[in-house]
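Per reviewer request, we include the raw input and output of the structure prediction for the construct analysed in the revised manuscript.
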Amino acid sequence: MNQRVIHSLKCHYRKLLILRILECYDENKDCDISLLDAVVLLKKSWKLVTKSTNRNCFSHVGLTKTQQTEDDGKEDYNLPLSKWLEKREVNAFSQNEIEHFECCDDYVITSGEVSEEDIVALVNEKNSSIVDSSSDMDEEQDETGRSIAYAKAAGNVSNNFFDTENIDEHVLDMFKIVDKKLTSYI
């Protein structure tokens, strides 16, 4: 069977997962993704797989009577940039440029020896700055009000609620519109 459906699903899942990780990073908190969160992301990813991708999957193996004539025209926007460039035979960089880029930091010092005293001093300094900045963050958060990331997090909580309850389809459709709008701001 043609693997485009699986590839498309994985691409959408990775995109949503990375967006979730970036949201957590923006909020300076650990990104804990539960099994429920993973299933919700998978459900959203499946909804993003187009009907034509699904239809083409079955038509390529001969399970449907009608063969869709427009094969890849609409699917180009789902391709990763590297695959799109490869498909169009576009080579953005010469081999020399690639080799130069790979070797540009070969002689950069990336580490050094640190004594125990230096490590202890760094840890103590970091702990004291965390205590100082936590009180500043509370004041700053009150001043700036609600952020888009905060609204998106609230939307995720609402989405989890809607997935576990019997909610009218009209309400779900309206919530999806709000969710898409919030995602477009991020």
